[in-house]
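User: Could you check the structure of this?
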Amino acid sequence: MRHEPLDPRPPEEDPVLHQHLVLLEQFSPRLGFADRVLLNVWLPLPPYLAGIRERAQSLLAARRIWLFAAPFLVGAAVTLVSTVVFVATHPQFVATAWGWFVQHGILVAWQAATSALAGLLATLLAMLGVGSLSGATVAAVASTAVVLWLVCAWGLSRTLRTDVLHRNSLHAQR
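Assistant: Sure, the predicted structure tokens are below.
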């Protein structure tokens, strides 16, 4: 089956060219040609994925981060492996220790924590010269602590975001 020639001009305009185009053999590319071509087509990432990729690359490329994180990663890995090996080789000891902790340890830890907090609160009240605290004072101190925590979290996020924005502007200037 013959297809129409690819030349859009009428045959009367250039009869020699039309005759050569009609005589051309029709062919199709080898199997998988379209797939091989599409593998080389570059499509840009969506902006949100590009941002994530750039942040990951900048974190992974910074040597100082790896120099700082490597000892912690090795320490965590050694601790995890040694814990797993110890639990696997001493199951009776682990079962006995867990049983004691459930029966006595939680109570001991609770008593130690409450006595330490009571002593800290008594010392704090003595330093402030207050005999006892009213409910309104406790509520005011708690709400102030929450507000201060939120302000610190906001400041930290601004500091980190400013660093990223500054770093991005430096990359854009290159």
